[in-house]
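User: Run a structure prediction on this.
Assistant: Running it now.
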Amino acid sequence: MSFHHLESADDPRVADYTRLTDVHLRKLREPAEGMYIAESSRVLRRALAAGHRPRSFFLAEKWLPDLADVFEQYPDVPAYIGSAALLEEITGFHLHRGAMAAMQRPAPVPLPELLAGARRIAVLEDIVDHTNVGAIFRSAAALGLDAVLVTPRCGDPLYRRSVRVSMGTVFQVPWARLEEWPGALAVLQEHGFVVAAMELTGDAVDVDVLAARNPEKLALVLGTEGAGMSEATLAAVDLAVKIPMRAGVDSLNVAAASAVAFWELRNRG
């Protein structure tokens, strides 16, 4: 195994792990450099199980026994080892979930390929909070969605926080970033999807009403935090759908709403 013991936070070999808490920087760097960070031993293992390739490993020495089998499987991939203080200086936070790995991003899945055979998909419109993105992917995996699409301004599903919150399930659900929005809605409709916006409009139907119709193919669009769905999107969808609220509460967090809707609107074919 290619083990390397770190002695300086300026070591250029660990550039993939520097300033991980700088969200703006990492959002620009990681897609451009074709990589992402898998944080925690569990997430790392799920990334490897999904067939993703590691660029390097990054950990404190105490975690070496826990991942001995992984290092045996990838003997040519460097593993950088340092003290807890040094690793924190490099990343910007204390590592307490085991090892990290810099992973190669998988090749994007072409949209027609992703839609082929799909019955239930989610579309995330400009959801920028990576915690919400990760939570939605976890619900999508647990409740049987076939794919997730993200709009051009949506948060990165492979950003470290998204991956961690999803518990690595982001590797299980096929996803793609749309190049045009809301123009891509027409592509979904051409593929036979009923497109429903999760939004509180005057003509929105209750989620159980749409569930009773059980469309053969359904794409559920979830809007950004705060502002909700754009007017252009609402004009392009087939209908709006809502979760009935009680006790004067007008809405749920988008991640919580997604879980309710994914369950209620599951394919019952």
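The chain has eleven helices and twelve strands.
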